[in-house]
């Protein structure tokens, strides 16, 4: 559980808590990735279990446009970029410290098919669409924000594109699953592990006349 002080830091635009750098790692298939983290960002001590499970479930292909929404220090987006070096990954976060760490971690892991954007959710990518949207949303920022991200995802996906979301039962992932089914018309559960679930919803393809 996060204290209100810590929650305010990781979803604040400019965290005030003193920086305290450390490193953590994540194995993506046979590819080891290393991340620099700091205080004032989400899951500063290690890649959290939900994020790690999400990474194991995502499908990314060369030529695709991918969005890591609420990227933190970049674990999901950088993993996706390494999985498919021919895709382009856009990573977005409101937290300026997280954005700087994500840029640093992209260089550290030698991925050059990413761009990191400082901004508030989909406001940072207005008018753009993606083949994949990946998110471990900031549940502590409130249900309204998380549901807004789900609803806006539909307009930011290409036909046939997919949204991937991870969460826990205590974070309301089951009601979120129901909302995804309403928005997209269907939802698949890709994995259940340690109280976390990874959900995927696809945008319908355009039907021929």
Query: By CATH's scheme, which homologous superfamily applies?
Result: Vaccinia Virus protein VP39
Number of strands: 9
Report Rg.
Answer: 16 Å
Structural class assignment: alpha/beta
Helix content: 25-40%
CATH architecture: 3-Layer(aba) Sandwich
Beta-strand share of residues: 25-35%
The residue ranges in which pLDDT falls below 50 over 5 or more consecutive positions are 1-9
Cα shape: globular
End-to-end distance:
51 Å
Q: Please identify the top-level CATH class.
A: Alpha Beta
Provide the residue-averaged pLDDT. 88
- Secondary-structure element string: HEEHEHEHEEHEHEE
Query: Describe the biggest sheet?
Result: 7 strands, mixed
CATH topology: Rossmann fold
Structure overview:
- The strands form 2 sheets. The chain has a 7-stranded mixed beta sheet, sandwiched between helices. Strands 1-2 form a two-stranded antiparallel ribbon.
- The termini are far apart.
- Helix 5 links the parallel strand 6 and strand 7 (157-168).
- The protein has one domain: Rossmann fold (3-Layer(aba) Sandwich), CATH 3.40.50.
- It is an alpha/beta fold.
- The protein is built from 6 helices and 9 strands.
